[in-house]
Specification:
The complex is a heterodimer. Chain A is built from 10 helices and 7 strands. By secondary structure, chain A is of the alpha/beta class. Chain B has a single domain, classed as Single Sheet (N-terminal domain of TfIIb), CATH 2.20.25. By secondary structure, chain B is α+β, with helices and mostly antiparallel strands. In chain B, 37% of the residues lie in helices and 17% in strands. Chain B: One of its GO terms (molecular function) is protein heterodimerization activity.
């Protein structure tokens, strides 16, 4: 598995001019980003009244996710820490406003002015300490605290994340909850390693009916790709030819030292002149289960 | 950067109580046409700090906005057009934003304000034992961490 970019260098260094261009010219990445942001917008659950909203794109990069927002007719403000990525965004003439900012330093917005926020594959960067002054927990707290403040009541934030492990997911979610958000994690295609995507769906304000966390895609056996289900069907139709095969065959294959081995060893010990018990019918016999 | 963004932003330097509005130093202003949408304007009007918008648009060289407005004026097409123009069509391309309290400058290049703070400008949160406990789980780690932090 390819190494995580988070482990290679800080974001503003990793996404240099080369990497930023590579990122934005890869049709595969563009496709994935578009799908992720499409799903994030769906999870935002904005009222269906065709009124454009003012949204925030945290870690907007070259504006791939912002384009989806524009397609949905919304105005957006994107922020990113990598100047190279933002340069590409300017080149591509994205519609939204761009800010060069570090989400770990808190978002500088007035309280309650933003209608919703999305973030595609960015928040897990906060868990890294790239400078001596960085303290991941402090940065997470600053980020979620300021995000909570700037969102309007009842607004949602959908953050797609790639947590490195369980502890990291709990760390991120824990700080979101303590900032006052309600909500949880939506996992799309939980059974697939490749297509599995996690979204933190956070609602600003107290839990209510509207903040029920939606279900992930592909949770209840919905097929996630063509390759996967073809394999399953074949497995189901395997015929069993021999029904009376020995039940605990696998135990015989184990390297169990049997009676012969014990007798040989005892003989060896006798030749050395050691006191060895007699060989009887009980020698090397298995104990009963209830012993 | 458009004025809608400017109107939402505030300075988040450590110790600044009221970082809004950021003052504008305009060196280059460009205008780009954006589709007019009355619903968006009506929706966002309540959240706009009008005084700041008027001031900002004046520094950018657009002085058509009235000083005093009421929500009833939202029905007038003429008013909405001006509002739309000021809010979405004037871009600050080169210049700087200045924090009203500390005077710290945030330079703008190619329309992107550089809002990165220096280390000594970041707000420092005091992490409580609660934070530490919940972020690392086991008391053993907690003990090790609390030694490192305090």
């Amino acid at each position: 598995m390819a190494s995580r970019p988070e482990l290679q260098a800080p974001p503003e260094i990793f996404y240099n001019d080369d990497e930023a261009r590579k990122y934005t010219s890869s049709s595969r990445i563009m496709d994935i980003q578009a799908k992720l942001s499409e799903r994030a917008v769906e999870l935002l659950a904005l009222p269906d009244d065709d009124v454009p909203r003012l949204l925030l794109d945290i870690g907007c990069g070259s504006g791939l996710s912002g384009e989806t927002l524009t397609e949905n007719g919304h105005h957006w403000v994107g922020l990113d820490i990598s100047p190279s990525m933002l340069d590409i965004a300017v080149e591509r003439e994205v519609e939204g406003d761009l800010l060069l900012a570090d989400m770990g330093q808190g978002l500088g917005f007035r309280p309650g002015v933003i209608d919703g926020a999305i973030s595609i594959s960015a928040v897990q960067w906060l868990c890294n300490a790239d400078k001596s002054s960085h303290e991941p927990r402090m940065r997470l707290r600053a980020f979620f605290g300021s995000l909570y403040r700037c969102l309007a009541r009842g607004a949602r934030a959908v953050l797609q994340v790639y947590p490195e492990n369980l502890a990291q997911r709990e760390l991120i979610l824990g700080f979101a909850m303590r900032a006052g958000f309600s909500g949880g994690v939506v996992v799309d295609y939980p059974h697939s390693t490749k297509m599995r995507k996690e979204y933190l769906v956070l609602t600003c304000g107290s839990p209510s009916l509207s903040s029920v966390t939606p279900n992930g895609k592909g949770e209840d056996g919905e097929s996630c790709s063509d390759e996967d289900d073809s394999g399953d069907e074949e497995n189901q139709s395997v015929s069993v030819s021999d029904r009376n095969r020995p039940r605990k065959k696998h135990k015989l294959n184990k390297k169990v030292k049997g009676r012969d081995w014990v007798l040989r060893k005892k003989e060896q010990m006798r030749r050395k002149g050691n006191a060895v018990p007699l060989d009887t019918k009980y020698t090397a016999r298995k104990r009963k289960a209830r012993f | 950067m458009r004025l809608v963004t400017h109107n939402m932003m505030s300075s988040n330097i450590k110790g600044v109580a009221n970082g809004f509005p950021l003052l504008i130093e305009a060196a280059q202003v460009v205008e780009k046409e954006v589709d007019f949408n009355a619903d968006f304007l009506k929706n966002i009007f309540a959240r706009i700090e009008w005084k700041a918008l008027v001031e900002a648009s004046k520094t950018m060289g657009y002085s058509e906005l009235l000083d005093n407005v009421e929500s009833s004026m939202l029905d007038s097409e003429e008013f909405l057009r001006k509002f739309h123009h000021a809010l979405l069509e004037i871009h600050l391309e080169e210049g700087a934003l200045v924090c009203p309290e500390t005077g710290r400058k945030f330079p703008i290049t190619k329309g992107i304000p550089n809002m990165l703070l220096h280390e000594d400008e970041c707000t420092v949160f005091v992490l409580t034992g609660h934070d530490l406990y919940h972020s690392c789980g086991t008391p053993g780690v907690l003990k090790a961490l609390s030694i490192a932090v305090y």
